[in-house]
Amino acid sequence: MPVINFRYSDLCSMLGEEVPEQTLVDRIPMIGADMGDTEGGSDEMSVEFFPDRPDMYSVEGVARAMRAFLDIEPGMKTYPVGESDIEVTIDRSVKEVRPYFLCGIVRGVDVTDELLKSMMETQEKLHITIGRKRSKLAIGIHDLSKVKPPFIYRLAEPHSIRFVPLAMDEEMDMAEILERNEKGREYNKLLEGMSEYPVILDSEGQVLSFPPIINGRLTTVTVGRHDLFIDVTGNDAKAVKGALDIVACALAERGGKIESVIMHEGDATFRSPDLTPTVRRISASACDRFLGKDIGPEGTVECLRRMGMDAVAEGDEVTVTIPPVRLDIMHDVDIYEDVATGYGFERFGGSYTVTQTPGALLPETAFSESLRDILVGLGFTEVNTLTLSNQREEFEIPGFPEVDVVRVLNPITEDHTCLRAYLAPSLVRILRHNKHRDLPQRIFEVGYVVRDQLTQLRLCAMATASKVPFTEVKSWTESILREAGVEYTLEPCEYPTFVRGRGAQVISGGKVIGMFGEMSPKVVVDYGITHPIGFCELDLEPIIAGKSDTLF
Predict the structure, then answer these.
(1) Which H or E run includes 176?
(2) For domain 279-345, which architecture applies?
(3) How far, in Å, CA of 323 to CA of 75, rounded?
(4) Phi, psi (degrees; rounded to nearest 5) at 158
(5) Which residue numbers in the chain have pLDDT < 50?
(6) What is the SS3 assignment for 126?
(7) What are the domain boundaries of the chain?
(8) CATH code linked to domain 3-69
(9) Of 325, 224, 220, 257, nearest in space to 105 by CA
(10) Backbone φ and ψ of 425, nearest 5°
């Protein structure tokens, strides 16, 4: 989550009053944040905000929100937008590359070191979050006095325009910037495969910005009183507008005056920024039912004003006016959440009854735990394998009877095309990856398989050594069955999985619940193993239930 760093004294100056530091430490988290490393008595504060509130990715946004939340200035903060005569043209050529472009002016901003730091931090946080590392949007802030309008946003051939990038002294063309500049190398993938690159120019051909890579050094903002030009380009219209509104309103919090510019796009002409709020209507009773609280229409209005919105109640209907910087408000439930936040999460909940209730393991869990103790006692090591497998290793190589498996749609690799129906192939893969290790190797797994649309709990124990005779496999299989208290009989198993005459089925309750024996040399070689393998696999569910409802 984005972490915002600022000074306590700077925040108080924008709040308009001296709020005790401890009050801020206690109350800021209640609007959707987590306090970072903030030591008592220190002027430095750090807040980690939830990703859904990009309007608070700056100390200016925090101040705006906290003025309402602390009832210093409840309701929606509005920022007058004057009209300038500056014109900006969006050339048709950018439509296939980075089609959306909005900009605006904030005049008379007293830029301090504190504000410069806040501006850079806000830009970076917006780039990373709603900008998806500049793929959805990129923001530029410029000293308007250094360039001459009108401006144009168009495409240009990579070697046709040269300028000095921000924080550098050497002039480069756009292709060189992508190869040699730090930001160019970091973001050049965003322009990969393009024959022309977007650029913002003034009337004299001077470069304001090479979006989404870097601004020109010419328009660098320095300490002092300045008129600032903001540009936002991107591939998402809502994100571009939201970022412009957030940055412009943050600068207005510092005393700047917002002015719109005239945007020309094809035959259309419009002004930007447009800070017109949106309006939604909700039912107060529906909100109360959702939250489980009897807040009422007037209480809902009070809560929403505490969240920086305007609201009016008429009967059960509440008309909510939402500021343009609140990009997170998309549905009625988002407003319900703000009502809950304004009401105070600390006021939710009630008394809790302390009742002691004994807990117990599920029968299959308890039985599995006892089996693990048995296998460990027999000298086996437990493994946990991937549930994904493939039909070749499940059926074709071992010769196991085929069952209905769950297949993976559009598998990434040929090794993971279905959910496993047997445990043995998964354990063979473990042995294959460890065939360079010392012998003997004895492993087991208690895990689930999926067959015939049912999930089944199974046990598989497997060993590899220079010799793994049938009598040894029979010995530890019968030990497992005896210790588990299973009544059983054995019958020959003719699966091609086993050496002829060295495979057996386990019968319990008149049903086949398992198999064991020496794996056929052909199967061993086909699996890529170089030493003999013996294994047993048991269906545990009929054992746990005392009967077998499925054939092995």
Answers:
(1) helix 174-180
(2) 2-Layer Sandwich (3.30)
(3) 10
(4) -55, -30
(5) 547-552
(6) helix
(7) 3-69, 81-272, 279-345, 363-545
(8) 3.30.56.10
(9) 257
(10) -60, -35
Distance, CA of 25 to CA of 32 (rounded, Å): 12
Q: How many CB atoms lie within 10 A of CB 227?
A: 17
Give SS3 for 168: coil
| pLDDT value at residue 39 | 63
**Rounded Cα gap, residues 365 and 244, in angstroms:** 56
Q: Would you say how long the chain is, in residues?
A: 552
| pLDDT per residue as tens digits for the range 83-133 | 999 999 999 999 989 999 999 999 999 999 999 999 999 999 999 999 999
Q: Which fold, 81-272?
A: Phenylalanyl-tRNA Synthetase; Chain B, domain 3 (3.50.40)
- pLDDT tens, position by position, 313-327: 999 999 999 999 999
pLDDT of amino acid 551: 37
Token pair for 202? 């003034």
- Cβ atoms within 10 Å, residue 532: 18
Residue type (1 letter), 137: L
Predicted confidence at residue 548, as pLDDT, reads 39
C-alpha 208/C-alpha 227 separation (Å) is 14
Instruction: Tell the burial category of 75 from Cβ atoms under 10 Å away from its Cβ (0-12, 13-18, 19+).
Output: middle
**pTM exceeds cut of 0.70:** no
Q: Which of 378, 398, 506 is nearest to 443 (CA)?
A: 378
- Tell me if domain 81-272 and domain 279-345 are identical in fold: no
**Closest by Cα among 197, 111, 191, 201 to 152:** 201
Has domain 363-545 been given CATH number 3.40.50.1000? no
Contact (Cβ atoms closer than 8 angstroms) between residue 44 and residue 114: no
